[in-house]
Design a protein that fits this description.
The complex is a heterodimer. By secondary structure, chain A is α/β, with parallel strands linked by helices. Chain A is built from eight helices and six strands, in the order H-E-H-E-H-E-H-H-E-H-E-H-E-H. By secondary structure, chain B is α/β, with parallel strands linked by helices. The chains are: A alpha/beta, B alpha/beta.
Chain lengths: 177, 195
């Protein structure tokens, strides 16, 4: 991971927005955010088996008055596309925190097709995109995205760019996701 | 195939005793069944998002731990949402119950067989995931016992009810998800105005 860490500022923004639920399928770039949320007694952390569960889970939580976000890797966006319809048709607030692969110096070609397609896929489903490229902007970008989602009942995604997160290096081919 | 329970009777008997429970129906026949039992602000119906009903129920159950949440789902919906059995078991959602109305067929698309027609045991899968209570329901005289479990036993629970394939009158619930959302949130006291 790159030296400047964005996770602390991201967690602080979630707390400011009153988020009480972090659903995730883990990614190396999300590890510290997941840790921070796990140690926060005000945030319920739910590990999902499949990203597809996320939008439905968050819609159910919103029905019951609980604000949640979904954090996943860019590959996971491909898994959940149809579930974005649930959020769209119900005008459920939806916040995706997406750690990008397949864009900046990627060494695993299997990550490239989905990673490159994420912005177009999300835009096609009506999700508003925020790009997070510098750690020092994290608080402002997250505040903006969370404010739009919960204030105007919109679907938003914060794309944590690979340049921010760092390139995953493969010592032996086949390691990791 | 006419083996199995009358799905409308089963759902009506659940609804008659649900009290303050929140009921969420997955797409297709379970949504029509719940509408046929009588629409209510504490019902939510999915007209899409196949495979998401269990996860949506988990979200609602986590948000309202003081309430019973019952998800009604077809076997096709359940099979598409199998990953959520693991997620729900890991969360130990004690107030969540899943009722699978299993007719072993994709009822909305021509009656093609689902995997349960080949004997796939959804209750067994939930049990091995760690659900503390699961049961298979195939006799009408056990319906009240199954409703007891769905509404009262510590969860998460999965009841796999074998239902017949007789055609039922189409009873459609509201399809405006914003309306369904707002009226449920209002029923839970989350809105300052009544939609």
């Amino acid at each position: 991971m790159s030296a400047p860490d964005w996770s602390e500022a991201a967690h602080a923004a979630l707390a400011r927005a009153g988020v009480g639920l972090l659903a995730h399928v883990p990614d190396a770039g999300l590890a510290r955010l997941i840790e921070r949320c796990t140690s926060d007694p005000a945030i319920r952390v739910v590990g999902l088996a499949d990203e597809r569960e996320g939008p439905a889970l968050l819609a159910g939580a919103w029905l019951g008055g609980l604000k949640g976000v979904l954090a996943c890797q860019s590959s996971g966006i491909g898994n959940l596309v149809n579930m974005l319809a649930v959020a769209a048709v119900g005008r459920f607030p939806l916040v995706l925190i997406v750690t990008m692969r397949g864009e900046w110096g990627e060494e695993n070609p299997w990550q490239v097709p989905m990673g490159q397609a994420v912005p177009a896929v999300l835009e096609a489903m009506g999700v508003r995109l925020f790009s997070l490229e510098r750690a020092e902007e994290t608080g402002a970008v997250l505040d903006g995205a969370l404010g739009l989602a919960f204030g105007s009942e919109e679907r938003v995604a914060v794309l944590g760019r690979q340049r921010l997160l760092g390139v995953k290096r493969f010592v032996a081919f086949g390691a990791g996701r | 195939m006419s083996d199995g329970l009358d799905r409308r009777e089963l759902v009506a008997r659940l609804v008659a005793r649900r009290g303050a429970a929140l009921l969420l129906a997955g797409l297709g026949s379970p949504a029509w069944d719940l509408a046929a039992a009588g629409d209510h602000p504490r019902h939510f119906y999915l007209w899409g998002g196949m495979g998401g009903a269990f996860a949506m129920g988990l979200g609602l159950a986590l948000a309202r731990p003081e309430r019973r949440v019952v998800v009604l789902a077809g076997d096709g919906e359940a099979l598409m949402g199998l990953s959520s059995l693991a997620t729900i078991a890991a969360q130990k959602a004690a107030n969540l119950a899943l009722l699978v109305l299993d007719n072993a067929a994709y009822g909305e698309t021509g009656g093609q067989p689902t995997a349960t027609a080949a004997g796939v045991d959804l209750a067994g899968m939930a049990a091995s995931a760690g659900f503390p209570a699961t049961l298979r329901l195939d006799r009408a005289e056990r319906i009240e016992d199954a409703v007891d479990v769905l509404l009262g036993a510590p969860g998460p629970i999965l009841v796999q009810a074998r239902v017949d394939r007789r055609p039922q009158p189409l009873v459609l619930p509201p399809k405006d998800a914003v309306l369904l959302k707002l009226r449920l949130r209002a029923a839970l006291g989350l809105l300052s105005v009544d939609p």
